[in-house]
Specification:
single chain, alpha+beta, eight-stranded mixed beta sheet, 14 helices
């Protein structure tokens, strides 16, 4: 899988268009569910490992397919086993759209997913909503109205990609379905995570670690807590597969999926692109200019957020301890004893100071003059 990613990156040096690429490993619980769902053998699965490439639009996907097909046909290392285009109609069960190429190399099957930015936006939106909601929407699990919304949402984005206008009836139905689905998800036990996002300070930290590495591509293991929408920990394991597998297995055991932890191993030559390739960890902000020009009905189930989840956790901790005004606490104590799992602690704390919600340098306390706003936030 790593070798394929490196080969693709080398080829794409001459592609001359913007793209984001990352390798990904399907999680063990996902593999087990798929084996049971389709009653197949492990050797029949073709998407345990693979790469995802996100490009600007649908025309760019067509261009990339032709570019890569020529490369694979002239390669002694890889053979195209199958190509499947889900873009025109979407998958019947979910509305998923992308172009898939299944490759074989040394007896192994690898899957290559090619998506436009809007197709990727849809996929990341349903991923985020699935874990928050507690149902695997891509596997047709969950309330029928939520499943129906994501199909409508996929259709809407596809029409937008083709430059077509919506009928008024369709837009009204999309808006109605969106509001109903959002209410259903918000009423779930973790629905409040829809309104949180991860402070991007963690990306800056990972990027600094990456700069000190020697390899052109690194494996990263991220642990995400969907109970409150924050990273628990992360580690760079380089390109050593044995080291990566050992650490991945240890984290899988330590952070079980049934407790709403997600352990993911990704590979990238630039970890900052995780903001684009795995945006469901960061709140699915509506950064695409095409989306911003549409009515609210076209936007997915998440709203723009004003506070990252690390900052919210710090506020909650200080409020729970009654740390208002003169009842301050040392920063080291707050960080190492009460906010140990806030990976973005320093950046989140600085944000709270800038917003005037926290006073003092060290020690710190909640600003009692902003108590109403703080109570609303937490």
């Amino acid at each position: 899988m790593t070798k394929l990613t490196l080969v693709l990156q080398e080829w794409l040096q001459t592609y001359n268009q913007q793209y984001y690429i990352a390798q990904r490993l399907k999680r063990k619980p996902q593999i087990l569910r798929k084996l049971r769902r389709f009653s197949v053998r492990l050797t029949q699965l073709q998407d345990i490992g693979g790469c995802r490439i996100v490009v600007e639009n649908n025309d760019s996907v067509d261009s990339l397919v032709g570019f890569l097909r020529d490369k694979f046909e002239s390669s002694d290392e890889y053979r195209i086993e199958r190509e499947t285009d889900y873009r025109d109609w979407g998958r019947d069960d979910s509305g998923y759209r992308a172009y898939h190429i299944v490759l074989s190399s040394n007896g192994m099957k690898l899957e290559l997913q090619l998506r436009s930015s809007l197709q990727h936006y849809w996929s990341e939106s349903i991923e985020r909503s699935s874990v928050i909601y507690g149902y695997r929407l891509k596997e047709s699990d969950g309330d029928i109205e939520v499943l129906r919304y994501f199909k409508l949402f996929s259709d809407a984005l596809h029409q937008l990609e083709l430059g077509r206008l919506f009928s008024s009836d369709f837009e009204i139905e999309l808006q109605r379905s969106r509001e109903l689905s959002e209410a259903i998800i918000q009423s779930s036990s973790a629905g409040s995570a829809l309104s949180s996002y991860v402070n991007e300070g963690i990306i800056k930290t990972m990027s600094e670690v990456e700069k000190s590495s020697q390899g052109s591509l690194n494996n990263w293991i991220l642990v995400f807590d969907w109970n409150d929408g924050n990273f628990v920990t992360w580690a760079m394991v380089g390109r050593n597969p044995d080291e990566a597998i050992e650490l991945y297995s240890r984290y899988e055991a330590q952070y079980p999926e049934e407790e709403k932890y997600e352990v993911v191993m990704i590979g990238s030559s630039d970890i900052s692109t995780v903001r684009h390739t795995h945006s469901h960890y960061f709140g699915i902000e509506h950064h695409n200019s095409a989306l911003e020009e549409m009515e609210n009905s076209i936007i997915g189930l998440t709203n723009r957020m004003s506070m990252d989840v690390g900052a919210r956790r710090i506020l909650s901790t200080l409020k729970r301890q009654g740390r208002w005004g003169k009842k301050a606490i040392k920063v080291d104590t707050l960080k190492n004893h009460f906010c140990l799992n806030v990976a973005t602690f320093s950046d989140s704390l600085e944000l709270l100071k800038q917003q005037g919600l926290i006073i003092g340098s060290d020690p710190v306390a909640l600003n009692i003059k902003r108590n109403k706003e703080i109570n609303e936030l937490v």
